[in-house]
């Protein structure tokens, strides 16, 4: 159930990432830890850490309080 909520939330941010030539893939959910893989242009972008922490992680925490941490794998 939590995985589905996370997928839905990621779908809302995905168009912005794709507009810049990137994407995000949900890899695993382990308790409050969410593992994602940044793909395409996001994978090598120097701003990817900022995108992950200030964009993806913040959005997921706001929408899904159970999310405690988002990490790139």
What kind of assembly state do the chains in view correspond to? single chain
Approximately how much beta-strand content do the residues carry?
25-35%
Share of residues in helices? 40-55%
Q: State the helix count.
A: 3
According to CATH, the fold-level topology is GMP Synthetase, Chain A, domain 3
Task: Explain the overall architecture.
- By secondary structure, the chain is α+β, with helices and mostly antiparallel strands.
- It has one domain: 2-Layer Sandwich (GMP Synthetase, Chain A, domain 3), CATH 3.30.300.
- Helix content is 52%, strand content 29%.
- It has three helices and three strands; from the N terminus they run αββααβ.
- The chain has a three-stranded mixed sheet.
- A hairpin with a 2-residue loop joins β1 (22-30) and β2 (33-40).
- α1 (2-19) runs antiparallel to α3.
- It is globular and about 30 Å long.
Structure summarized in a few sentences:
With 73 residues, this protein is α+β, with helices and mostly antiparallel strands.
């Amino acid at each position: 159930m939590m995985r589905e909520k996370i997928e839905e939330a990621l779908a809302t941010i995905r168009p912005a990432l794709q507009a810049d030539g990137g994407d995000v893939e949900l890899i695993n959910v382990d308790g409050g830890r969410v593992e994602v893989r940044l793909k395409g242009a996001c994978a090598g972008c120097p701003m990817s850490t900022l995108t992950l922490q200030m964009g993806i992680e913040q959005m997921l925490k706001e929408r899904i309080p159970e999310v405690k941490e988002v990490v790139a794998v």
